[in-house]
Write a structure and sequence with these properties.
about 230 residues, alpha/beta, 10 helices, binds zinc ion
Length: about 230
């Protein structure tokens, strides 16, 4: 216990420097943030420490509302994620919800390879559900491509789940503009890829189902991306 403060002193020092630099670069930055939070985007991404949401899209505090969990899962009974979505859509009026997976995701690897990691197995089970839904197609891919494919399938299925939440359905019913997107971040190159899933209304949800031929055709097993 005696080392606790010294262990974290670097972080506290970093914070002081960051706050001072931010205020010096843009005087009044924090007092303006205090009065206003008007992000346009809700980011639902993986908790992986290599995927820092704001930094990847070069947005400042106040510009991106963020929810992260293991393997960027959207579950209909997860009150944490649903509450974030509800606050973002109803109170902050975000216009875009972006589900963001990333290459070589440990949660996806565990789901694909039946790796036991502990309590989190119960959470990763949601990703295994996606795997089982698409097992026959995944089996047609070279083994080296399966993680990447399941990462993308997981993003698309979680984006579909987001579309089916009461939060998004109610927003669409009252004519509020909310668009759901699916992206994947490449750990190897720092780039985000749009999976071309864009749902701005209930009629656009089912056609985006990744089990459809259109999505499979766009994802042949010969894609080149190091894992
Ligand atoms: Zn991950």
């Amino acid at each position: 216990m005696t080392t606790t403060n010294t262990d974290l002193q670097d972080l506290l020092d970093n914070n002081k420097r960051w706050a001072a630099n931010t205020e010096a670069g843009e005087p009044g930055f924090f007092s303006r943030l205090l009065k206003q939070q008007t992000p346009q985007y809700l980011w639902i991404g993986c908790a992986d420490s290599r995927v820092p949401a704001n930094e990847l899209v070069d947005l400042l505090p106040g510009e991106l509302f963020v929810h992260r969990n293991v393997a960027n899962v959207v579950v209909h009974s997860d009150l944490n994620c649903l509450s974030v979505m509800q606050f973002a859509v109803d109170q902050l009026k975000v216009r875009h919800i972006i589900i963001v997976g990333h290459s070589n995701c440990g949660g996806v690897v565990a789901a694909l390879k039946d790796l036991r990691v502990g309590l989190a197995d119960n959470w990763i089970r949601h990703v295994q559900d996606v795997r089982h839904m698409h097992q026959a197609w995944l089996d047609t891919l070279p083994e080296a491509r399966r993680v990447e494919a399941l990462v993308e399938l997981n993003v698309l299925e979680q984006a579909r789940n987001a579309c089916h939440t009461t939060v998004v359905q109610d927003a669409w019913s009252r004519g509020q503009e909310v668009v759901v997107h699916g992206w994947v971040y490449g750990l190897h190159n720092g780039l985000l890829e749009d999976l071309s899933l864009t749902a701005a209304g209930p009629e656009q949800v089912d056609p985006t189902r990744p089990t459809g031929a259109r999505w499979r055709a766009s994802r042949p097993g010969t894609r080149r991306r190091p894992e």
